Predict the 3D structure of the following.
Amino acid sequence: MIGFHGAVGISTWTNKVARAFESQFLENKLPLFTNPTDKGDHIVQYKERITTLHPGKAEGILLGGNMTVLTGLCGTPYLPDFKDAILFLEEVDEKVERVDRMFCQLKLSGVLAVIKGFVFGKCTGCGPSGGYGSLTLQQVMNDYIKPLGIPAYSGAMIGHIADQYILPVGAAVRIDADKGTIELIQPALKD
């Protein structure tokens, strides 16, 4: 069964989110999820840009969501089978050392060893603790995701933000880590 990760009733429903909802739910179109490319007054894109952790393309079933919720399922019969999946994650209001612990939990539970691709969204309100020597979120992802050698990127419009993707969890997708895209390759809704 397909579930959806994205805006809920109390979310900010921007025009972009409302159009995406209509396209996906009413018209059953195959969306291509991509970040905005507006550079504004800058030479390079500064806002909402993606960072490629490892280049390439991958296809698989899209699984994931909020890191705290997902890692809470580790060791239970409710943790999905991530073999050959595309894992996506997001988080809100967690210190980087807690995000590091959650990545460690995903690694130790075997999730990271079997995925085919990885997408990290936004970590809204996630910063280092006040102590000296805290890692950055980028360093944590470099430690856990880069060594996997699978297509991976961060910065996707996923999480606790206004213009978020509405992702079909459990649907077949293709990611392009160089372009920072997630493409649905079959309709999420049955006719």
